[in-house]
Amino acid sequence: MISYDDIKELQQYKSSADAMVLSLYLDVDQSRAANLNRRFETTVENLCRKLGENNSSPNGNSRLAAECDRILRFIREYVPHGKSLVVFSDSARGFWWQRDLQVHLPTDARWSSKPWLRPLLDVLEDTDRFAAVLIDKHRARILTVDATGINQRAEIISDVPPRHTTTGTDHMWSQSNMERDHINHIKLHARKVVEELSAFLDALKISRLVIGGPVEATSMFISELPKRLQRMVIGTVSISVDAPEDRVHAELREVQHRSEQQDESRMVESMITAAKKGDRAVLGVADTLEAIHQGRVYRLVVASNYRTEGKECRSCHVLVESGEDSCSFCGGQLEPAPDLINRASHRVIEQAGRVQLVSGEAASKLAGTGVGAILRF
To answer: Which of 88, 86, 89 is nearest to 100 (CA)?
Structure first.
């Protein structure tokens, strides 16, 4: 999975005047014809060639060529284990980081002074880990879902007697007793699953839950959940416990996507209202960058389709909009920062803040500003 621990690990790569890292995001999905017969190798070769053509520094070009050779050697031996591959490489510093992801990412590469994290942050927000329970009357599966796919954590099978039809003078009494016994066994099964699920969620600190299965089973199971677990439920799906994994994954992701879109929209609306009142929130590039410089940002919020350029001071490394000629803080020289949002994201994470990329209705609400921040103080 991808987590903020991974992002913090990447923060250990410290930028400097001569630091350069090659960031690669590669679609390697073998269900796509374009990736069969290892055609993704040619894709990487083409990306490296384009990077070389766009790099004007002779010294930087030789370093880039060496870095591309390093990644190409890896790619030629690489066996795809997911839909996308992410690699960050700087051989001069002995730096190498890679992950296989079970989500699609657009193929792209960057040669820059820091790892290009924006696509990874997008994945983190879109595929943040949650738990799921698929349950019927006698069987249950506890799953986790994240960027690596679905992982089954537990399976619970209970002995539930089937419903019977009786005959004779005691038919109604017997039928009623057997029906009651049948339902009691289903409830015991549900409680057993609840007990295991509760311990599992606490151990992994997961706070979002999707329930799946036949409607009757999911309704009974939710009724057996304690209130604190009921509050974690973000949706339900009507699906068989034995459904194919790709269908399970698609159904669960759809529930998660709807829930996150709603949460993002409410969060952005709250941030906009707070910013207008001057209450620990700001909107727009200039005010957001100033808050980052002051170490006040708790959460940086960026519309997923928002792009902007800026500048960075060579001396104090403050980030500013493109309009200024010299640093207003130290008077130092400003250099172009075409990846302004990526650099701003690094700063926020370095300050123990979080970065959230929003889409859909939430992004529409940020139209005109593109970026904002929820502040610590």
So the answer is: 86
CA atoms of 127 and 46, how far apart (whole Å): 29
- 279 φ, ψ to 5°? -110, 80
Output helix, strand, coil percentages for the chain, rounded to the nearest 5: 45, 25, 30
CA distance 301 to 321: 17
Q: Determine contact, residues 121/170, Cβ cutoff 8 Å.
A: no
Write the pLDDT tens digit of every residue in 36-59.
Answer: 999 999 999 999 999 998 876 655
CA 93-307-333 angle, to 5 degrees, is 60
Asked if the model's pLDDT at residue 151 lies above 80, the reply is yes
Checking if the pLDDT of 166 tops 60, the result is: no
**CA 247 from centroid of its chain's CA atoms:** 20
pLDDT digits (tens, 9 = 90+) for 356-370: 999 999 999 999 899
Phi-psi region of 50 (alpha: psi -120 to 50; beta: other; left: phi over 0): alpha
